[in-house]
Amino acid sequence: MSAWLTTSRRTTTTGLGLLLAAAALTLAGCASESPTVDAAPGEGPDQSVAFSDGWVKAADSGMSAAFGALTNAGSDDVTVVSATTEASSMLELHETVANESGEMIMREIEGGFVIPAGDTLSLEPGGNHIMLMDLSDPLEAGEEVTFTLTFADDSTYEFAAPVKDYSGANESYEGGEPEMDMGSDSMGSDSTGTDG
């Protein structure tokens, strides 16, 4: 009887040990996975950019724009050279400037957005922004749009921004494209409180 009891204890101890080892491996695997955070700093050898206070203008079709703040916590300037999203087949990095007659126009910025080291670049109505042209589907308030930025060093950064209703003044697109509300009036009642 004592031999049976010893064998039974060994089997129980071995089974319990295997169960605890499996549980520890499972927990270790879970602990090593880090959650994805849309507004976390980007990855790349020479940039550490974070996006905040983002929003996208609601639109039924045609064009829209994305706004927010890009902060560079690194010690070197960073250049955003392009942006992509499934919400639009064509994106451009835009600035808003006065033309020869003093009229405010939007145009693609040569060389992309430069975010100085330790500084923030504001993307806002009437200023720099990410222009979405040829929208895939209507952008309705309450939805979320995911973007991927590409930097000059070929690193990328992904962030998401909510779609908001916005009514602003008209500005023209360089080259005579249709006008879009991009002025400095404040956003509607669904706003984030950001004034352009």
Automatic annotation (TrEMBL):
Keywords: Signal. The keyword Ligase does not apply. PANTHER family: BLR7088 PROTEIN, COPPER CHAPERONE PCU(A)C. Residues 183-196 have a biased composition (Low complexity). Residues 1-39 form the signal peptide. Residues 165-196 are annotated as: Disordered. Pfam families: PCuAC. InterPro entries: LpqE-like (IPR007410), Lxx211020-like (IPR058248), PCuAC_sf (IPR036182). This is Copper(I)-binding protein. It comes from Promicromonospora umidemergens.
